[in-house]
Every structure is written in structure tokens, then in C-alpha cells.
Amino acid sequence: MNLVDTVRNTLVPVHKEGYRFIAIFFAVSLVLGLLWEPLMWIGFLLTAWCAYFFRDPERMTPVDEDLVVSPADGRVSAVAHVTPPEELGLGSEPMLRISVFMNVFDCHVNRAPMSGTVRRIAYRAGSFLNAELDKASHENERNGLVIETNHGAIGVVQIAGLVARRILCWTGENAALEAGERFGLIRFGSRLDVFLPEGAAPRVSVGQTAVAGETVLAEFGSEKGPVISRRA
Hints:
Structural class: alpha+beta
Number of domains: 2
Strand order of the largest sheet: 9-5-6-7-11-3-2-13
Helix content: 10-25%
Largest sheet: 8 strands, antiparallel
CATH class of the largest domain: Mainly Beta
Number of strands: 14
Strand content: 25-35%
Low-confidence stretches: 3-10
Distance between the termini: 39 Å
CATH topology of the largest domain: Glucose Permease (Domain IIA)
């Protein structure tokens, strides 16, 4: 392996959605440097953070149609049975909802939790409450996907937060998604909710760190009970 390959394998790719923001941060840093040099170095640090925010690393997704992988990097903030948002058209009966909260230091590229076909995409304008609040699922700006899988329809909802004011979704209705495939991004902090039908058993607990496309959130067909965690 030569030096170029070593550098390429060491550096984490940056998603193209971040190019414009990185360029703006860098340009502003240069301008600030004309006013006062320390401001330029502060700007360069913020530019580095911006590049870090838009990182888009490769992930190793387990190939198993019974598994539900995390759609986002972050912390599992809720595991409960609740009624899904009305616009998803998933009915009024409670479904298993697993929420993953992303802070401004998490990777914000969103990935499909299961393989299937996108049957519906529903955007809903709303508030910008703290995305960790339970009511954010119904009151905040959000974009929902309904994916038809081998285990029935599941819902994936991108939720804006206090800082996040821009939800991006790159897929469309009737598109096929593979588990772990990139489908969107939220700038700059937020939450992802996954709504699962009967038969799904949670494999994570509140407070656990999740990695998009890799961490198994739930499993279908398992007779195991809920996961019990302890601090270690």
C-alpha cells in the first residue's frame, strides 16, 4: 500500500452536501484573519468542525431481513409503543417506536433501517422544539417515509430540532432501498424515529449509543425479551 492509499483509507469522506458550508466557513475565516489573526484560527477550527459534521464514513450493515438497523448515529432516547404520526397512514394502533437523537457532533447521514420499497413520503411543517422531547414526534417539522418490507410497513421519520432547520431526503416514492443505504441528512442536529409493526422485539435500551447502518435496533421473529442494560 502506497502513501496515497494510506491517506485515502485514513481520512473519512465528506458528503457533498457539506462542500458549500465548508467553503463558506473557510472564506469567512480568511476575511476574519484580515481583521485580527486569532479570529482566523478560530474560524479554521470551526471549518474543521464543519467538515467533521458532514463526514460520511462507510458502514458494515448486517445482511439479515429480520434485523432493523439504526437509521442514524446518536443516542437511543426512547423505546416505547406509541401511535405513529397520522401522515404516515400506518393506522391508529400503537407501534414500537425507537428514537435516536443526534447531537451536533454525530454523523448526520441517514440510512434505511431495512430493505424494502418506499411507499410514501410525507413532509409536515411544524415547530422546532428540542428533538429529545417526546412531543417533538408530533409537533416538530418532520419528513416521514413508509417502507414496505418483508415484515410489513415500517415508518422512518426525520425530525428537525432546535438547531436543525433543514431536512434532506434523496429517495422517492416507489424507490427500492437496501438496509443501510443512505437516504437523507439533517442539518445540524435532530432525531430519527423508527416505527415497527407487531413482531419486532427491541434489541437496544435507552441511553445506548447507536451507529447508523450497523447497530441492530430491533429484530423480527425473536423470542428474546427486551434488552436489559447496565453501566460498566
